[in-house]
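Fill in residues.
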């Protein structure tokens, strides 16, 4: 009990001050809930400014490079199972 009394002496907080802090927190939460779509859109726009999306051609080139690297890795491996051979044929057909 003495700890509570000593802590209350260092932080004198009236009921009115506590209600004011609680009201400010409630207003902040209400603001965030009300403007959530707008804030989410602004955050998405900021992310797109820093890291723009790749174009369709760039995504296609990246996928082809990844497929070619996978094909080369599979060809260099020592053991090739039948399922891997089928996957190799499918990859070769796409390339």
């Amino acid at each position: 009990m003495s700890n509570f009394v000593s802590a209350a002496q260092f932080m004198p907080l009236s009921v009115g001050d506590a209600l004011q802090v609680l009201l400010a927190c409630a207003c902040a939460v209400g603001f965030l809930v009300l403007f959530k779509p707008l804030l989410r859109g602004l955050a998405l726009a900021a992310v797109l400014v820093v890291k723009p999306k790749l174009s369709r051609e760039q995504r296609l080139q990246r996928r082809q490079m990844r497929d070619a690297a996978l094909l080369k890795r599979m060809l260099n491996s020592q053991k090739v199972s039948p399922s891997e051979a089928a996957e190799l044929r499918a990859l070769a057909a796409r390339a």
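The chain has two domains: 1-53, 54-95.
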